[in-house]
Amino acid sequence: MSTYRNLGLFLALSALWGSAFVAIKPGLSAFPPVLFAALRYDVAGVVTLGYAALRADRWCPRGRDEWATVAVGAVPLIAAVTGFQFLEEVVDGWTAAGFCCLFGGFVLIERRALGREIPRLRAAIAGSDE
Questions:
Q1: Higher pLDDT, 130 or 108
Q2: Which residue windows are transmembrane per the record (predicted)?
């Protein structure tokens, strides 16, 4: 993809996502919040499924192996998103910083930390009491 095409797609996506927030206020006056969120997800799902049906030769998984692949990808993602929505109320800043450092350590385990990364790591572990 060219740089201009990527920039155009990025701007289009930004405009779509940004305009969605404009519609939330009148939508919430017409529907209860949970129903409104469900309707938004339903519309997004139908649009995505329609796009997949038009663009792909085979858009639905077939066979036990393909459904298992979908489940292995989708179930942890859904559980993580739902869990983080409810757990953020009880997770303090240190815990979040600690997990960031832990996961960063796994990603960067094959190389040495640079001198400027050590103070940042210490600051993240120290957290903030604000």
A1: 108
A2: 33-54, 66-87, 93-110
